[in-house]
## 1
Amino acid sequence: MQFLDTTLRDGEQTPGVALSTDDKVFIAKKIDELGVNIIEAGSAITSVGERQSIKAITAENLSAEICSYARIMKQDINYAIDCNVDSVHLVVPVSDLHINVKLRKDREAVRQMAVEVTEYAKDHGLTVELSGEDASRADLDFLESLYSSGIEAGADRICFCDTVGMLVPEKTEQIFNHLASSIQVPVAIHCHNDFGLAVSNTLAALRAGAKEAHMTINGIGERAGNTSFEEVIMALEWLYKYNTGINCEEIYRTSRLVSRLTGIAVSVNKSLVGANAFTHEAGIHVHGLIADTSTYEPISPEIIGRERKVVLGKHAGKSSVTLALKELGLDTDAAQLDEIVSRVKELGDHGKKITDSDLQSIAETVLDIYRESMVSIEEFTVVSGNKITPTASIKLNVNNKSIVEAGIGDGPVDAAINAIKKAISGVADIQLEEYHVDAITGGTDALVEVIVKLSKDGKMITSKGARTDIIMASVEAVLNGINQLMKE
């Protein structure tokens, strides 16, 4: 079985993509490192710049066979020869729609052109893969007879192109069962993904006797794209237990390279190489992963050069939070863990995903609060608005005694801090020296981290609070600092 990668030809035909020569060489070298058999480096007829790129790739002396796309015109072959390629992908329109409308010829004229150009390419030392364009909408008897004529003229391989993605797996299997048994040279499959069946049709063709598959990295290509390389390879390796010979550990790095150089982002939920493919949030899933990663992963991410990720949100449970905390080097007791999980879920309910920075800030705040506290909050209310003096009322437990106080200020945060200072004035004289607020992450739902510097009898400490609500984060930071000062 062989694999032809057409990322640099069909993939580059994705609207908006234009790769430089350096980009093409970089990608070609990476694809060669994967162990792909044939690299379709471009179409030599396209432009001077395209020929420069193909020449630069052939000059690299890669292990893969280097191929140029060509029409059934001798001029295309001459340009390909000039680029020093090993082979041509000689594409022949075979449906009556393409023959009559695009070429404005008849079947026999197209057959003769295909034979003549095949012979010409072979006479000049090129390997020829004769491809039927729009084969899935062609008359199959004519298609097979054209293939036979091409093989007689010297074609080394033939290819069936599902140019507009019209195949279904059942039909594909039927076609390739017949072609593979009646044609004596290797038969290839080239699919497009217009109905989302490119991978399924490619696998069906390979099961039915096809010896070569055309694919692109990340499935890029015109319209809905081409057959996804990574999906076919990993399906063969893991679902069909077939040794492809591909260096699978380089798949993800190759995917990222192609995405970066083409500017085409990979969908987050794309299989295998999407951002979420090995990312877990739901608590029950993470609990299973801790016991055995195969519970919620079909393969280990390392197999394709990836790493597992755990993100936290409203579905997070104790298992996922515990795992994430361990990665941060933080240990908690049961009460502390419950509070951290509660805060994570609170953020998750606002649609926020918890980053490592968020979790660390939350955890450090909770760990400080859950040290032996002399002052804790029981009730808290703040009123603020247009033409209303910001007012805060607070009920604190100070040394096991409830104290209720109110305060006003320039804003709700100032009012809250003044209320706290009044509530503890009979116990300790504590001054706010500095106040600083940071949004850990962007957006209106950002986790706010408030850092305060407090002093008492010449002693100075810094403490912080972390919430999505700046007022509560400020109250938390001040109470945390008060507890630290009153214990010293």
## 2
Amino acid sequence: MIRLLLVAVLTLLARPADAVTLEMNGAFTQGGIIMGRTDPDVKLTLDGRPVRVSANGVFVLGFGRDAEPDAVLVAKGADGTEERKALKIAKRSYNIQRIDGLPQKYVEPKPEVLARIRRENAKIGKVRKIDTDRPYFAEGFIWPAKGRISGVYGSQRVLNGVPKRPHFGVDVAGPVGSPVIAPAGGIVRLAEKDLYYTGGTVIIDHGHGLSSAFLHMQTVTAKVGGEVKRGAQIGTIGATGRATGPHLDWRINWFDVRVDAAVLVPPLPPKN
């Protein structure tokens, strides 16, 4: 499991009494998630994209699987002073598996299934646009399940020469019925028992566009609109949807940017 963890404390505006100090902690790498704090009245943008700053100055941002090596963070102070900070994003290597000779039905869904997939994807996409002002994420994260890591972020299959979508989650293998808990507090924005690809699926909004998705669940006990605390059970591990065995696929998004959940938590301890 790749865990590139850096800490940066950046002073963006000279050093007068009204200087703006920006503190950031996280993985400055492809798939990385950065949490930080600044003055509440500072306006932040990342490569032109607004970054929400909470009433107490907390913020979060993320970088995609194939993020460019350079990003620009702009901080605008209350007095209108603007500073630009260049961020260096480390490149990662991913496991690419090539499989040839598969029947075409295993490469693409049948046409009659595509309409359902589009409807479900639209529902998920709508949830991921939500920008809740409360920074639940700031309390930190724990693993949502216990077990063996059976899949990692960024891996990809090439089927019959056609590159498929990369895997954007971390997979935790475990027996059917094992508990799945909320890794951090938040609001349940989606709770579905039977999506085509992901089966039993829950999405928790952790604030500021950061959301966790939990896929292939056997049971879903979380309720849409409900507020959950870190450690609260939201369902159980299963093998629903397009799964080859029982496991939890845990994914995190920063809005539409797919980031690596594994950078938020320590390595899982080995099972006895």
## 3
Amino acid sequence: MADPDLAKHGFFWPDMPSDHADHTERTQEGAIVKVATAFFEEMERRSEKVNPLKLDGPISRDEWHSAKGRKRPIVDQWFYVDVGVFIAPGGTGKTTLLLFQAICIVLGLDLFGYEVRNAGPVVILTAEDSRETLVARLRYMCHQLGLTDEQVQEVRESVIITDVSGKGIKLTTVEKDVVMPSKVLDRLIVEVGLLCPSLLIVDPMVSFGVGESRINDAEQAMIDAARRIVNTVQCAVLYVHHTGKANARDKTTDQYSGRGGSALADGARMVHVLQRLDPAEWTSATGDTLGPDDSGFVLARPKMTWCQPQPDIFIKRRGYGFERIAAVDPTEGAGAITRQNADKVDQFLRDEFVKGNKHTGRTLQALKMMPRQSMRDAVERLMTDGRLVSEAVTTGRGGARTFLRPIDRPN
């Protein structure tokens, strides 16, 4: 009798002679070797095409007239068919924000007011968050966005998530003390190329390189690896990267905000930097107020090679939804901060007055509810608006002779 496993491969001869079965097994192995050989030959061919060993010839007439001055946009003034890096501190929610951007690219929806010019699949290689976690976030996001069943189906089919955490997948390697793209990269190029994506996200970049012992060499090799993907697959490649500790504390948004060396930012053609804002910073920048369930961010694009310089945008997150909020003039933002502080002081004085406690400007400052100047500005604003008065003490006791009273409270 034949090996029952052969039935899975289409062999149904029940009384197959053993010598014939051995021959069939050898034939199958030969076919597998043949396919594998063809696979690697194709990868080698593509590699040679991307990295030719011969110098190019003179510029032809057709090339002279057809050469384009900038890369094809995926999202206008946002993502182009080139290498990019997205920098943010750990725990900021950068991966969730990227999932939101992936949904917009897949469905062709405007991204914070920017037009998606070439919608298509988005491939995500993650070595940090599990596939299950990212799928759940996508589901929550689609629900919060109110997408139709057809749109949800498109997201499910076109956002390709591959979790390689713990598998040691590296896009670069060290050979003879030189950091260079690895053989895994060739396989990735073939796999990604079959999907014809608009964007490939690699998250986080540090998990796919050789480490940070030779910082700039390692970063430059990652740039070279990404360029090979871009040139072969013709999609945008975005590395997710963390900020340095000092940059995170200082909330810098320049192109060198990422930890490590300068080669990554120098080699990338798109650099996006995300920083979280506290409520006061958010209000100062936007005039808007963050609720208890809200988070505010500034997204800078300090390096955009293929378009004019772009302004910072301010993003409010609530749950799994993201909304762009317009920036305001610094004077208007400062005024909004003063109004917020005034409301806080007003409510505090009202609550204290009910309890029988009376405060002066000095006792308010002693409570350290806010910086001294902010407290002074808030009290001045309340008095200017007619919401607060300085009233004389009528008890005849020593000490302070006036106190601050909310205007609509009786003596």
